[in-house]
Amino acid sequence: xxxxxxxxxxxxxxxxxxxxxxxxxxxxxxxxxxxxxxxxxxxxxxxxxxxxxxxxxxxxxxxxxxxxxxxxxxxxxxxxxxxxxxxxxxxxxxxxxxxxxxxxxxxxxxxxxxxxxxxxxxxxxxxxxxxxxxxxxxxxxxxxxxxxxxxxxxxxxxxxxxxxxxxxxxxxxxxxxxxxxxxxxxxxxxxxxxxxxxxxxxxxxxxxxxxxxxxxxxxxxxxxxxxxxxxxxxxxxxxxxxxxxxxxxxxxxxxxxxxxxxxxxxxxxxxxxxxxxxxxxxxxxxxxxxxxxxxxxxxxxxxxxxxxxxxxxxxx
Length: 316
Hints:
By secondary structure, this protein is an all-alpha fold. Helix content is 70%, strand content 1%. It has a single domain, classed as MetI-like (MetI-like fold). A two-stranded parallel ribbon has the order 1-2. It is a multi-pass membrane protein. It is found in: Cell membrane.
C-alpha cells in the first residue's frame, strides 16, 4: 500500500510593495531614460548639423581642405596626442599621491593633503591657462632649450625650440595638473576600500609595506585605477580654454613637443574659430565636435571592456 507524500500547495502571499519602493523605482527609471534621451538628442543634433560638412566639395571647407577627413585629422591627432602626454605625466603622480595619502602619510597629514587635492579640482580652467602662460611656460623654456641642444637627435625633442615655451608639452603639463585631482581622489577612495584582512595577511607573512601594496592593494584596485584614468582622459580630451590659451596652434601632424607650432585640439579649435564662423564653417566645427564625441565614446567603451575582462587566472 502506497501512501501519497504530496503536500498541498498553499497560495504564497504576494510580497507587499511599499510606496517608497515604487517611487524610488520610478525615479531611477525616469532618470536613466532622461540620460539616454539627452545623449541621443545630442548625437542626432551633431549628425544632422555635420552632414553638409561631411559631403562638402573640395575647397569649400576651412583651410581649403579637399574633404572633411583631411580637415579634421590634424585636430584628432592633436587632441589624442596632448591627452596621451597628459596621462603619461598624471597617472604615476596620481597613483603615488593616492598611495601616500591612503597608506603612508600620518592621519593628520593625509587629511590635509586630501583637502588640498580636492581643492585643486575646484580651480577654474582659465586660471590654469593663465598659470601656464605667465609662469609655467617661462619656467620650462630654458629646460626645453637644454633638451633640444643635448637631445635634439631624439624626434620628440627635435629643434627648433620654442622661444616662449608655449608648446604642446607645456599644454600637456597643464592638463596633467588639471586631471591629477580627479584621478587622485578616485584612486585614494579605491585604495581605502582594500580589505583590511588582505593587507594584514600580507604583512603577517613578512611582506614589506611596498610588497603589501603591490600584492594586495594594486590588484584589488585595478578596475578603479582604470576608471580614474578614463575619467582623467575624458577631462583631457574635452578641455578647451586652457589649451587654447597655452598653445600656438597649427593644422599640422607632428610628434615634436618642443617646437613653437603645435598640433591643435578639437575643443580648442572650436572655441577659437566658432565666434567668427559662418555658413559651412559652422557645420565643419560641429562635425569636429561629432568626431570628438565618437572618440570619447570609443574610449569609454574600451575602458569598460578592460574593466569587465576577467583576470587570466580566474576560474569561470
